[in-house]
Specification:
Distance between the termini of chain A: 36 Å
Number of helices of chain A: 1
Shape of chain A: globular
Shape of chain B: globular
Largest sheet of chain A: 7 strands, mixed
Oligomer: heterodimer
Order of helices and strands of chain B: EEEEEEEEEEEE
Structural class of chain B: mainly beta
Number of strands of chain B: 12
Distance between the termini of chain B: 41 Å
Largest sheet of chain B: 6 strands, mixed
Radius of gyration of chain A: 13 Å
């Protein structure tokens, strides 16, 4: 068990470019969550998957954002036409039964849009 | 709507001194409560959680928290702080629904004086 892995750790991109982040959850975890954390704030929920099904999306997830979890394993989060306001830490977490054990978070991807 | 308030943005304590970080929540039903710690540039590590039962919960690294329903509080305590405890601490509340998304407070940054 190597924990939740996120790649890349850091990404600098120019405004208007597309970026994609990857999250590899703990292998036996069927739930996967994406959160966004801006400077000085706590993480904010974006979306979650149970297996390959995306079951909920926050209103923070504009139409420029899309997330997938093909085959119920790793997940990707894509941001199209990035804006400076997208600069944040993007955190992935996974769980089995969150009401019992809570989540395991990855180390995050720090996005800087210049 | 559910919310979490951490009244203290930044706290400084001396090494060896006791610590209490405050957390107040707003939630209609019995809450699921969590404390996470985040070191700079890292993801979040679960310190402890409360779901039901004994209102005093023990966590990792010598931390404990007490759930007080009458005060809507879930304060984090440690009897003797170590320099390695310097980090940011987040309180979170989870809904009892199936989604499992957490609502985080804005965090309290802990500095430790030698």
């Amino acid at each position: 068990d190597t924990g939740v892995s996120q790649d890349p750790r850091h990404k600098i991109t120019k405004r208007g470019q597309n970026v994609t982040f990857r999250c590899d959850p703990i292998s036996e975890h069927n739930r996967l969550y994406w959160y966004r954390q801006t400077l000085g704030q706590g993480p904010e929920f974006l979306t979650y998957f149970q297996n390959e099904a995306q079951l909920e999306k926050s209103r923070l997830l504009s139409d420029r954002f899309s997330a997938e979890r093909p085959k119920g394993s790793f997940s990707t989060l894509e941001i199209q036409r990035t804006e400076q306001g997208d600069s944040a830490m993007y955190l992935c977490a996974s769980s089995v039964l969150w009401t019992v054990v809570g989540y395991t978070f990855g180390s995050g991807t720090r996005l800087t849009v210049v | 709507a559910q919310s979490v308030t951490q009244p203290d943005i930044h706290i400084t304590v001396s090494e060896g001194a006791s610590l209490e970080l405050r957390c107040n929540y707003s939630y209609g039903a019995t809450p699921y409560l969590f404390w996470y710690v985040q070191s700079p540039g890292q993801g979040l590590q679960l310190l402890l959680k409360y779901f039901s039962g004994d209102t005093l919960v023990q966590g990792i690294k010598g931390f404990e928290a007490e759930f007080k329903r009458s005060q809507s509080s879930f304060n984090l305590r440690k009897p003797s702080v170590h320099w390695s405890d310097a980090a940011e601490y987040f309180c979170a509340v989870g809904s009892g629904g199936s989604q499992g998304n957490l609502i985080f407070g804005k965090g309290t940054k802990l500095s430790v004086k030698p």
